[in-house]
Amino acid sequence: MLNIYDGALDVPKILEDWYKEESTSNYGAYIPFIGTVREEDGIDGLSFDIYEPILENWFNVWQEKAKAKGAIIKMAHARGDVLLHKSSYISCVFSPKRRVALEFIDEFVEDFKASAPIWKYDLIDGKRVYALDRSTAIKGSGILGVK
Description:
Helices cover 32% and strands 35% of the residues. It is α+β, with helices and mostly antiparallel strands. Strands 1, 2, 3, 4, 5, 6 and 7 form a seven-stranded mixed beta sheet that branches. A hairpin with a 3-residue loop joins strand 4 and strand 5 (87-95). The protein starts with a strand and ends in a 17-residue tail after the last strand.
């Protein structure tokens, strides 16, 4: 399950909904990762652009990897502006065993940071400024790469 929301994520509601959806699925582990916008370099928040077709393909590959381990993964991401101390990203792994979930969430989040087609901007004085120094070129992006 991949969900894109406009603006900051409602973390308690999303996690509660996911938990309810899987509460009778007989998973022994439920491991969430929540990303929040932290205060740094004088920003007021972050803003995100998402290329959804590539993100959906990327996510589907990870769903298949999870399925092969008897697990599932869910993810939510913000599109647009997210102010300081609010959440822009949540992912969660449900699996029969904790070790699978712990290892899988780490691999998933690291690959998300390196491969997801999401562009980050700093919000400074009401303007969006591309966060070049904190961006990673997407593998295979060619001339669309960051650096």
